[in-house]
Amino acid sequence: MKPKLWKPEMIVVVVAAVILTYLLMVKPLVGMANNGDFERIMESAGLDYLPVAKEDKYFTYFFSQYAINHNALTALGGYLSSQALLVKLTAWVQQWFHAEVYDIRILSALYILILITALYRIVNEHRDNSAWTRWALAVMLVLVFVDGAYAAYFNSLFGEPVSMLFLLLTAAFGTALTLRERPALGLLIGFYLSAIFLIGAKVQNAPVGIVLLLLSLRFVKLREGVKWRGVVISGTVLLLLTSAVVFLSHDSSIKIINKYQTVFYGVLKDSPNPQQDLEELGLNPEWAVLANTNYFVPDLPIDIKSPEFEQQLNDNVGHLKIALFYLKHPVRYWEKLQATASQAFIIKPSYLGNYEMSENRAPGALSHAFTLWSKFKVHVLPNKLVFLIIFYAAFFLVWISWYMETKRPGTKIYLELQMAIALIGAIQFIVPVIGDGEADLAKHLFLFNVCFDIMFVTGVVWAVDTLVQRRKRFRYLHSADN
Q1: How far apart are CA 190 and CA 196, in angstroms?
Q2: What is the DSSP letter of 432?
Q3: What are residue 103's DSSP bridge partners?
Q4: Phi/psi at 439 (nearest 5 deg)?
């Protein structure tokens, strides 16, 4: 039997593919300029810039083509991330076709394929719901996750799209596992592979593995059998190992940068007494002159790249110590979270240009095509910490009510998947100021945005489904009375 093209899951695929192809494949291409993060991926994947002035490499324009370093392409090592693997894979494909340069649209095409696969599966797995519910889900998924602000990352070498895509794919496989009566073993394997790519995208995603690990243990309940239990145990161990490897393999130079940002553009930013804060952290109080500066500010009064400075900073500062500092100063931490909330809904940073230099646009020009959702978040939703607390509280209250009413074990685990996404979002919200201060907050909140958007979509679909069920109940009672 041929699939009906008007089904919501098919419409999602077609509409998403058309919009993303228009944005990312047809000139003028939409992409994201480099802020300095691309180099470690380029080095690992065997890519280099084509001839271009140094001042044009960063912030103003994005580049769709790169030179291929054939020696580096086959070398092992480099920056450890699942994103580097995907970039290198698409470079190999292009080399196999004897391409002279690396075209980033091949990577973007892979991202599009992953996204429409995830969206298709999410809608398809809700086939037992009413038509109204499924169409609401389809429309919301396209409106939110095909937004131009998210899409711009696809034509870039940032790790953010890998985080987004594999979170959605992990959620899609998790949905299939929990809503089917007897899920296939392939779905379970797909869940673990997606989760590993999600965790491995960025060091910031390492805590995600702990949340998914706890959810993974619940999958034992979904089916009986030695093979099923063996895959669950093996997959759970792999999630733990991936989280540990990603965290421990963090490059030392990046750690120094993060620690500097955490202290001088985090703890000391707007501090009433920088000297006292430095003493409490075990650092030289004379460094207070560096308060409110980030690592990339030139001509600082102290040489922050000297071995002595770096060693003292590295020996005395760690994530646990910073977390304990804020625990002792909860008012200060509340202020930092308020600063975080003020940028919580910015999906695409405004300081990174979205067009190629060849388009003759102004340096740093931004694309606003298909950005209805991202504009709604920035201009309509309150970017206040209180709003986020109320939103999470409402989500939890609805969730606990739904969870208590549900009897089917698989549905309970499906709800636990939703709560896992909410927890990942909460972690991603509180981690940036501890791990990198207030530097580049909007970009560090990217995965929080994805989690928030999943929760928002879930809330809208739940509301529609509730109205549909109440209408059915009302019509049944009305017909019974007659």
Answers
A1: 10
A2: H
A3: 65
A4: -75, 130
Q: Is 366 left (phi over 0), alpha (psi -120 to 50) or beta?
A: beta
CA distances from 119 to 168, 248, 357, 414 (A): 8, 33, 33, 17
Contact 201, 159 (CB under 8 A): yes
Is 70 exceeded by the pLDDT of residue 222? yes
| Rounded Cα distance, 279 and 175, in Å | 50
Written as six digits, the tokens of 258 are 């993060």
pLDDT one-digit tens code per residue, 22-71? 999 999 999 999 988 888 888 888 888 988 888 888 889 999 999 988 66
**Residue 101 DSSP symbol:** E
Digit-coded pLDDT (tens) for 63-98: 999 998 866 555 555 667 899 899 999 998 888 887
DSSP string covering 171-240, please? HHHHHHHHHSSS--HHHHHHHHHHHHHHHHT-GGGHHHHHHHHHHHHGGGGG--SHHHHHHHHHHHHHHH
DSSP at 359: G
Report the half-sphere exposure of 44 (CA within 13 A, side-chain side). 20
Q: What strand order describes the sheet that includes 65-68?
A: 47-48, 65-68, 101-103
- How far, CA to CA in Å, does 12 sit from each of 82, 139, 368, 435, 452? 27, 8, 22, 37, 21
Burial letters for 178-208: b for 16+ Cβ neighbours within 10 Å, e otherwise?
A: bbeeebeeebbebbbbbbbbbbbbbbbbbbb
Of 411 and 436, the structure prediction assigns the larger pLDDT to 411
Look up tokens 């870039």; give the residue.
Answer: 156
* Backbone region of residue 312 per phi and psi (left: phi > 0; alpha: psi in -120 to 50; beta: other values): alpha
* String of DSSP letters for 33-73: -BSS-HHHHHHHHTEEPPS--GGGSBSS---SEEEE-HHHH
End-to-end CA distance of the chain: 41
How far apart CA 121 and CA 123 sit, in angstroms, is 6
Distance in angstroms (rounded) separating the CA atoms of residues 277 and 340: 21
* Full-model pTM: 0.92
3-state secondary structure of 149: helix
Which one, of 239, 229, 254, 236, lies nearest residue 198 by Cα? 239
